[in-house]
Amino acid sequence: MRRARLLLAGGGGTATGPPAGDRLAASLRRLHDRWGAEWWALAAGLLLAVLGTSVIPAVAGAAGVPVLRRVRLARRARGAWERRADRVIALCGALAGEVRAGRQPGEALLRAARDSGGLGGAEAAVVAAARFGGDVPGALAVAARRPGAEGLLGLAACWRVAVDQGAGLAAGLDRLDAALRAERDQRADLRAQLAGARATAVLLAALPALGLLLGAALGAAPLRVLLHTGPGLGCLVIGAAFEAAGLWWAARIVRGAGAA
Fold first, then answer.
1. Contact predicate 225/232, CB 8 Å
2. What is the pTM of this model?
3. What DSSP character marks residue 117?
4. How confident is the prediction along the chain (260 residues), in pLDDT tens digits per residue?
5. Coiled-coil segments, which residues (predicted)?
6. What is the DSSP letter of 80?
7. What gap in Å lies between CA 117 and CA 87, rounded to an integer?
8. What angle do CA 194, 197, 78 make, to 5 degrees?
9. Any residues with CB less than 8 A from the CB of 55 and at least 6 apart, and which?
């Protein structure tokens, strides 16, 4: 039908689009971005509800959707924070190079903002202030309110000192760039050190599911015991409470170490 429509419309040939596999992969990516991975919890709950002939897994899966969505959004926000911080570091390094090359601060900031990929979504006011002689430190301070762009406060201080008191802007930018890079390296080192604790927490959290699979493989029917007997329901409630408390406590320890 597509070929016929093209020929009748005077196209003179067939359309050359992406392969069906690529279109399917793109559709799956769009579906994943729209719905998120948290809906797999509901799907798993529905599957366990069918296998165990009980509505409890479905209810638990539905309750886990907002929790997993919150975790996914927090991870996305953390990634955006890190990307914005990297752009600020790149901006400081590029601006120091432009100033050292002999350009005026305003022109250097325009070139550095273009070469470093922007100022984290708030570059319009800063670029306008630099181009038309506005309050560049004030615009940088406003841009620094975005998460991850806190380093722009140091850039604003360097700019104010260099313009008002005639100090060297390149030297201050070099020190600021070194400080921001050292802070980023420290965060990366801390994240690497906490990776083992996170992996241990995830492994311990997955052990109950492994136990259920092992019991099912041995023919013990763990779902029937947990979902259709009084002692099983009690064990399920107590185990779920301990599981949630353990995950919360492990996440609290990791967050506390990162904040320190």
1. yes
2. 0.71
3. T
4. 667 666 665 544 444 455 666 677 676 666 666 666 778 888 888 888 888 888 888 888 888 888 888 888 888 888 888 888 888 888 888 888 888 888 887 888 888 887 776 665 556 777 777 777 778 888 888 888 888 888 888 888 888 887 766 567 888 888 998 999 999 998 888 888 888 888 888 888 889 889 888 988 888 888 888 888 889 899 999 999 999 898 888 888 888 877 76
5. 173-200
6. H
7. 7
8. 45
9. 49
User: For residue 54, which amino acid is it?
Assistant: S
Output the six-digit token pair for 67. 């929790």
Alpha carbon distance 22, 109 (integer Å): 41
Instruction: Quote the CA–CA distance of 209 and 40 in Å, as a whole number.
Output: 15
> Exposed, middle or buried: residue 21 (CB in 10 Å: 0-12, 13-18, 19+)?
exposed
The pair of structure tokens assigned to 136 is 């560049």
**What distances in angstroms separate CA 231 from CA 55, 58, 227, 236, 237, one per listed residue?**
18, 20, 9, 9, 10
Residue type, 174: D
Place of tokens 């799907």: 43
Rounded to whole angstroms, what are the CA distances from 147 to 40, 81, 259?
A: 30, 6, 15
CA distances (Å), 162 to each of 158, 169, 220, 260, in order?
Answer: 6, 5, 75, 33
What are the domain boundaries of the chain?
38-257
